[in-house]
Design a protein that fits this description.
single chain; 4-stranded antiparallel beta sheet; 8 strands; about 50% helix; globular
Length: about 325
């Protein structure tokens, strides 16, 4: 096995019951949930394990739940497998888990930061005002053109995530997203579907949220990472303690360039990627980018044991 990367999923991977198996089996997972609940003043374990789904899907809850679950899974995995990855990355809010794993921020700093981030997201676009949709079967350039056609003076939509070839996500005002979905549906071989996310992430509609978050970011004593973290918005560089504030602000309004992130990892010699978080969303996306990468995922006890066996023999 060559060089290894860790990746952390983001919004859209949430589901009722996530993290419960590891919570019941490992103290390291229980410690993360307890810390998150204490810091945030809410029962993250109950939200993740029992929902209800409507509450879990609200951005202000989703981002905190996914971050907590990601970090719980990572802490358990790191306890079982003693290795430093060559590089890490997180998808959207998963980037905060990557930063905490690398020691650029503390877990105790990540939770209130993401709470503020999620709150500003929700305030910037009240439920129903914005939307996101996945466009399957078109490249980034074609989707950008479709967005231009679907936008007007009163409602805009733009490319917000480039996951893999033929898998692009758009964000914007609900009416413009609906128009983009309809336009995409008119093309042969193209599928468009709304995502279970209550705000239009990674687009210009959240410029106010980015500015509001800066107040919180300015108070964080960022550290240099123990391993590199690739930013969503600029996959050609790494996070440092000096650029973290600017990159986390840009992340809110800029597209997630996930396809380029994985290409960057491969250019660094990575041949194995471990996804640490609920579902296998990133593993399935990465398959579309490079089929030569060995892919592992950890989300419960069984998948943890399988991943650990690959590293521990």
């Amino acid at each position: 096995m060559g060089r290894i990367a860790f990746v952390f999923p983001g919004q859209g991977t949430q589901h009722v019951g996530m993290g419960q198996d590891l919570y019941l089996k490992y103290q390291a997972a229980r410690d993360v949930f307890a810390a998150a609940s204490d810091i945030l003043g809410m029962d993250l374990a109950h939200l993740c394990f029992y929902g209800p789904r409507e509450a879990l899907d609200l951005t202000e809850n989703t981002q905190l739940a996914v971050l907590t679950c990601n970090l719980a899974i990572y802490r358990v995995f790191a306890e079982r497998v003693k290795l430093l990855p060559a590089v890490v990355a997180g998808h959207s809010v998963g980037e905060y888990a990557a930063l905490a794993a690398a020691g650029i921020i503390e877990d105790s700093q990540a939770f209130p930061l993401v709470k503020a981030r999620a709150g500003y997201h929700q305030e910037a676009a009240p439920v129903g005002a914005g939307a996101m949709a996945a466009i399957l079967g078109l490249n980034e350039e074609d989707v950008a053109g479709l967005c231009a056609t679907a936008s007007d003076a009163g409602a805009v939509v733009s490319v917000s995530i480039i996951n893999a070839p033929g898998q692009v996500v758009v964000s914007g005002n609900s009416s413009a997203v609906d128009r983009a979905v309809a336009l995409a549906g008119e093309r042969a071989g193209v599928k468009a579907v709304r995502l279970p996310i209550s705000v239009p992430c990674h687009c210009g509609l959240l410029a106010g949220a980015a500015l509001a978050l800066k107040v919180h970011l300015d108070g964080i004593p960022f550290q240099e990472g123990i391993f590199p973290v690739i930013p969503n918005c600029a996959p050609d560089i790494f996070y440092t303690k000096d650029n973290a504030t600017g990159l986390l602000m840009r992340q809110i309004t800029s597209p997630v360039r996930w396809q380029e992130t994985i290409v960057r990892m491969v250019s660094m010699g990575v041949d194995t990627v471990v996804e640490l978080g609920p579902k296998r969303t990133l593993v399935n996306i990465i398959k579309r980018i490079d089929r030569n990468i060995k892919l592992l995922s950890v989300e419960d006890g069984d998948s943890l044991d399988k991943a650990c066996a690959c590293f521990n023999g």
